[in-house]
Amino acid sequence: MDLGISLYFVRPEIILSFSGLFLLLVAAWYKGSGRFISIASVAALFAAGAWVVGEFMLNPSFELGGDAFDGLYRMDALGSYSKLLIYFAAAMSLIIAPRYLEKVGAMRAEFPVLILFATVGMSIMVSANDLVTLYIGLELNSLAAYVLASFIRNDERSAEAGLKYFVLGALASGILLYGMSLLYGFTGSTNFGAIGKALAGDIGMGSLFGIVFVLSGLAFKISAAPFHMWTPDVYEGAPTPVTAFFASAPKVAATILLVRMAITSFGEQTAAWQQIIMVVALMSIIIGAVGAIGQQNLKRLLAYSSINNIGFLLIGLAAGTAQGVAAMLVYLTIYVLMTLGGFICLMQLRGRDGRLREGLSDIAGLSQTRPALAAAMAIFMFSLAGIPPLFGFWGKLVVFNAAVAAGLLPLAVIGIAASVIGAFYYLKVVKLMYFDEATDVIVGDDDKALAISGGVLAVLVSPLGYLAIPALTALTATAAGALAF
What is the SS3 assignment for 375? Predict the structure, then answer.
């Protein structure tokens, strides 16, 4: 393929890469430029997103996209839609971070630059069409994420979170690499489509082990059980804006990568990977729900919530149909909104001493002292629980519908039953805010960015979100249609 066409397809990554390099030089030459670099980084994300919308979401001739760099990279509707979600989550993380980092004395210009480079890695991940591209994008994202997790140098929890994430992330990368080497050895190719053709018919034991190892490595990246052990500790120890970023953008990238591998590379062996995905989905739902019940730290509670929600996402993938993938994308979109909103609410829980509060007991009676914050948090908790008429209910509904349509009625029934367990700890948060005596711990916060962002997200996941269903359904169906089922 012509180099010019390849460079045209990767223009979002080029915009973000050159922006990151330029802003890195600005950070080196001009001290105290953190605020400016954060704003410039958001602008770069907006520019990359605008190009994706203009060329691939509004131009019908690019609906199916095309391959770049001799099949290493594929730009299509699925990658375009995923990138918009990633850029949105990254931009929100940059918008809410400066005041938080300034108050803890950790605001440095490297933070937005690391977010940009992590976003470049995630952009490559969702458009990967080859095992080599997959690994390059994954490691670019991971290397930036390790530093972000330990960004507050004088905080022992942050340093511990970064170290745990690095050690366990290296283990997961090794598992993934071993699976990739097995697939290459037994199929003779690293291209997703060529691997899919080589796996048609009877599958050998070596190829099956390759599938298992690749799925295990990717399951770690999306914090699906039983590869979730790092999630609560890293989410609790990392700075809250970083935790919000980890819980949203990387989940989108790794989930889409998992979808591409399952449908494109392993599509001819659905029976081999479908059972694995079903077991992982149920384990994630149950462990996420049960594990959250005894948590007294709100960040750890939301960590288990993310594990729980990944289980519901994987039910859509287990269906192995275009409807299932479209349902996954709907749920993923709503999940990003709910998760970002939940962490934005946590960032406003500040005590009289100016320190952030993360304990469950700290929000007792919050509706009496901070009624608007309590209302927003209640909306996000009810939506995460999937209680109608909040928008989170729609996400669960379409996923379960896809599973039933694919003949996976027992999986849907177990998932619905397990979601009732998960509703307990979400309702517990609401009960503390509205029915317990006020502890007068939480005081007002003057961060307008948090208040406005949280308010907008609360409106989006409220019943008003149902107005977006026609557009959301059409976009996700188009994105899912880019895969060959």
Answer: helix
> What is the residue type of 310?
I
Asked if residues 118 and 140 have their Cβ atoms less than 8 Å apart, the reply is yes
Would you give the DSSP letter of residue 153?
Answer: T
Give how far Cα 40 sits from Cα of 11, 14, 34, 151, 451, Å: 18, 15, 10, 20, 22
pLDDT in tens, 95-136: 998 888 888 777 788 899 999 999 999 999 999 999 999 999
Helix (H) or strand (E) holding 131: helix 131-149
Two tokens, residue 52: 């994706």
Q: Phi and psi of 45, rounded to 5°?
A: -65, -40
Q: Which two tokens stand for residue 308?
A: 């729980």
Cβ neighbours of residue 12 under 8 Å, at least 6 residues apart? Answer: 48, 49, 51, 52, 83, 123
> How far apart are the C-alpha atoms of 23 and 35, rounded to whole Å?
12
pLDDT of residue 446: 64
For the chain, the residue count is: 485
**Is the four-CA dihedral 245, 248, 249, 250 of positive or negative sign?**
positive
Q: From CA 59, how far away is CA 69, in angstroms rounded?
A: 22
Q: Copy the structure tokens of residue 88.
A: 């949105």
| Residue spans of beta strands (DSSP E) within 28-105 | 66-68, 73-75
| SS3 track for 277-320 | HHHHHHHHHHHHHHHHHCCCEHHHHHHHHHHHHHHHHHHHHHHC
Residue 61: how many CA atoms within 13 Å on its side-chain side? Answer: 2
Tell me the C-alpha distance between 80 and 173, whole Å: 26
**Structure confidence by residue, pLDDT tens digits, 75-100:** 888 999 999 999 999 999 999 988 88
Tokens of 320: 């192995």
d(CA 313, CA 332) in angstroms, rounded, equals: 7
Contact in structure between 209 and 273 (CB atoms under 8 Å): no
Burial tier of 417 (Cβ tally within 10 Å: 0-12, 13-18, 19+): exposed
pTM: 0.94
